[in-house]
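REQUEST ID: PR-0412
SUBMITTED BY: lab tech R.K.
PRIORITY: routine
TASK: structure prediction, single protein chain
INPUT:
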Amino acid sequence: MKILSRANETIFYALGTAIVLMAIVLSNRYWVAFDVTRDSRNSLSERSQKVVEQLDESATISLYAGHNPTLLQTMRDLVSRYQRASDRVLFEHKNIELDPSVSRDLNIQRDGEIIIRLGDREKRIVELSESAITDALSTLLLNGERKLVFLSGHGERNAEGKANHDLGDFSDRLAKVGYSIETLEKGAPLPEVSNNTSLVVASPERGFSAAEQLSLAQYINQGGNLLWLQDSDGQDAAKTLSRLLPVSTLPGVIVDTAAQNAGLPRPDFALGSSYPMHASLRNISGTSLFPRAVALQIEQSDEWQTISLLQSSGESWNETSPVEGNIQPDAAHEQVGPLNFGFAFERIDSELQQRVVVIGDGDFLANNWLGNGSNIAVGEQLMSWLTQVESAPLPPRHAALDQQVAISKNSLIALGATLLGFIPLCLFGVAGWQWRQSSG
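STATUS: complete
OUTPUT:
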């Protein structure tokens, strides 16, 4: 009998071990996922599914990061939602610690940068979220040409130049996501008005002739989109700007003590750290740097809908003297912050929706500063908003419904009494009963 009993035990344990091993093998090959959140927050949203359904070729999501198991697993979990929806979504991890040349060759600016590629186009993001990945895929799927026409002949930054103050690196990035870049020679006619085209006036140093001002006014009056970057050393150009749009510049440059607190070497930086809920700066996070930015102020207008995009801190002012030594705001001649240095203008004329952005700084997109903070993301998002090319209509974003738990006062009292009273008493009762049984 003892031999039979031992044989039964051996068979039992062997069968149990076999079942566990089989379960492990099967779980590696087959799996089923359930999402029990109220609005399926751990599955792809309807919006993301619509984007994935448009993929007609493989999209590769690449994470460039060092050894960070938590980040890698979080990324894998997020991408797996897309892979369950489509076998055209691929994922790869490039360890930039093992191969530093990857960062140099691809100009990776920070650990954890994500590059999403579709065909010969790519989009870079730094925010690890479904909305950021979906927006990037949607951008790469855009149909139609997006065109940027840069003005020249007045000391503007060179759209394709490689000098520190030029915009060549930014133009290269835009070209990879489907933008057509063109530079107009001085005196050439301005582009035809179109929703998917924007004129770019990048930090002109000299003023415009009467004929050029008339041409710019006609372009704007006809509904043309425009990005105007205004620097502090282009006061003659600023006069033209104020004639074209209800916006003017304050003298001097913005000095912000928040820049010094952030460890920047000079105080004449304006920092963008919070962004409005506006499509032109959607999904932007982190701090963007604006060297020697100019404060802007707008006039009341019945034509334009205006929103402030960028604003300095309350510890800033427009310094009109040389930025050196122990500087303090002059209450008689300078204005204390917060100071606006970026505005979006919008108006609808018939079926044409016109968009204009004015930023009191051009350095943030220059080769020398582009890779700092969130500058790239800000620039790319502004251009995307200005050119207005949309992919297939997508459902709007919805906030998750189960991110907060709402409990009534009576339910909270009952829950507290159960956790802090009833359950501990039951445990003490069971412990006391066991003690009496063992001692009896």
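NOTES: The chain is about 35% helix and 20% strand.
REVIEWED BY: pending
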